[in-house]
Amino acid sequence: MIEIRHLKSFKAISESGKLALAAERVHLTQSALSHQIRAVEEYYDITLFQRTAHGLRFTPAGERLLKLADIVLEATAHAERDLERLKLDQSGELRIVLECHTCFDWLTPVMDLFRRAWPEVELDLVAGFHSDPWNLIKEGKADFVIGGLPSASKHLQHTPLFKFEILAVLPPDHPLHNKPYLVPEDFNHQTLITYPVPEERIDLVRELLAPAHIKFERRTAELTVAIMQLVASRRGLAALPSWGLQNYIEHEYVIGKPITKKGLWSELHAAGKAEVMAKPYAVDLVRIIREACSEKLDGIKLI
Amino acid sequence: MIEIRHLKSFKAISESGKLALAAERVHLTQSALSHQIRAVEEYYDITLFQRTAHGLRFTPAGERLLKLADIVLEATAHAERDLERLKLDQSGELRIVLECHTCFDWLTPVMDLFRRAWPEVELDLVAGFHSDPWNLIKEGKADFVIGGLPSASKHLQHTPLFKFEILAVLPPDHPLHNKPYLVPEDFNHQTLITYPVPEERIDLVRELLAPAHIKFERRTAELTVAIMQLVASRRGLAALPSWGLQNYIEHEYVIGKPITKKGLWSELHAAGKAEVMAKPYAVDLVRIIREACSEKLDGIKLI
DNA sequence: AATTAAATTGAATTAAATTCATATCATGAT
DNA sequence: ATCATGATATGAATTTAATTCAATTTAATT
């Protein structure tokens, strides 16, 4: 079969007219080229060159393959340039910050999937708790925030991930365990157990308790399992995304109740600088998160 | 370097999604394909496929090469079809007839040149003398006539070759040897030595002697060298194309004189059926005749 | 936990391309 | 005519590359 290497040889022959010169240009010996073109002639059983005393002249068939060479070599060079560009897109760094502590639950398997698809992208989790995770991007310490809708003043590009319901978490024998849903007043003078974040970042407080001027105590814990222990031992109530509770509810360690009749819903978004969010691997990370979460987490809605 | 064979493999992979299936389609083992695509990935240092449990998925870079494959394979297939067509044009048969006996002088080297350029074309000379050579084409016994302008009634396509001068041939000591040129009356009651063809095909007779009602004897000989011998031994005069005489004149065996003040000129044409004359090798034969003759024959003019 | 259906790997093999040394061929000069 | 020159062709030896073979690995499914 004809190969690109032959086409390159043809081009070189046409440009130099002589086998020996052409051979140099394609880093072969004159003999190699002679063998090579002869092999093509034999393959197609057609004369491609007229051998003269001054070098080679293309026959019409040779000219035809030369035309093919022009097309193919041009297309190949173009593809190779594109490949170089794609190589840049294929590698990079993505330092992820989570606004939402519970998200660790699903992020680990998602990161595994991502790493398999994008082995050249270095994926890191920025450790620790930050009062304003989006600011880490401005400071150059992170690239990709998973959390609520960032305020417009951050000038970050964001993509919605999904909606999820926040359930109140009560010990199974709590006095309110028969109510179909809780209302803000049910939290009056209760202890609220939360992750250690500012009050305004807790949806329940911001959306319901603060507007209704409900008074409550706060106690914090860093890990979901610690919060569960505190709730189960009746030290207070919590409000967590439904998916984070499932395991505990199934084992009747705690119970979950909707908050307000229509439930308390929150949204998760991915945010980052526009140029980062445009990277194909960032776009793909968003896709992977949405796909994996909608499959594995109960009770969420893609947005 | 990437080669067409790789592009074919990519195409097969994209169409079957699985290495093992694709391997069959390109007549390789699954392992060979695995090695092959890996080599391309390493050459460009970029991941082309995402390996999943169900087969291979193209990465954007892989997709790009797939697009290249479409272009290249399409162009290659097209070129190969054209090559098949050209192969038909490249081979054929050309049975040549000469109206003009002297033309043998230059035809042999021309045929050598032609055979080198068109090895697939079978070149034959139709032997014998024919009163109407163009008719041989109609009868399917010849393809290509070299001679004067064929009459329009033959419905043949013709291409002009060149003009040449017909010189009178005299023995060196002939009484007329001092005249700068001969006139028709000089042939009165002389013996004219010619090839064995009808009178109306002899330019001198048709153009000059018959119109002037000159009386002359005729004697024929088949070979140019025989005519020369007869002239040299004073058995008569001849009239031949200048190029045919050169050797004899140089050796002072005979002398050549223009006929009439402006000379007697004749033309040579190639004629054949339109479809034969259109064949690339027929076109090229015309070119070779014109080039070779204008270089080697003195005193002719291309037309 | 075992099975299956894929791809990968590395060594061995086979095939193909390339080189080396030399031959051939056509042309132009002596 | 013969010789030198500048070109391509040829064939055997070599080198390089592609392919196979025989395990391995991997991940999903039963």
Approximate strand percentage of chain A? 15-25%
> Could you give the count of β-strands of chain A?
12
Please tell me the CATH architecture of the largest domain in chain A by its name: 3-Layer(aba) Sandwich
Portion in helices of chain A: 40-55%
Integer average pLDDT of chain A: 89
Assembly context of the chains = homodimer
Largest sheet properties of chain A: 8 strands, mixed
Overall morphology of chain A: rod-shaped
Number of domains of chain A: 3
The biggest chain-chain interface is: A-B, 35 and 35 residues
Q: Tell me the number of helical segments of chain A per DSSP (H or I, 4 or more residues long).
A: 11
The poorly predicted ranges of chain A are none
CATH topology of the largest domain in chain A, anyone? Answer: D-Maltodextrin-Binding Protein, domain 2
CATH homologous superfamily (4th level) name of the largest domain in chain A: Periplasmic binding protein-like II
Report the top-level CATH class of the largest domain in chain A. Alpha Beta
Plain-language structure description:
The structure is a homodimer of 303-residue chains. By secondary structure, chain A is α/β, with parallel strands linked by helices. Chain A has 11 helices and 12 strands. In chain A, strands 3, 4, 5, 6, 9, 10, 11 and 12 form an 8-stranded mixed beta sheet that branches. In chain A, helix 5 links the parallel strand 3 and strand 4. The longest helix of chain A has 31 residues. The mean pLDDT of chain A is 89. At the A-B interface, helix 4 of A face helix 4 of B. Chain A binds a DNA duplex (30 and 30 nucleotides) through helix 3.
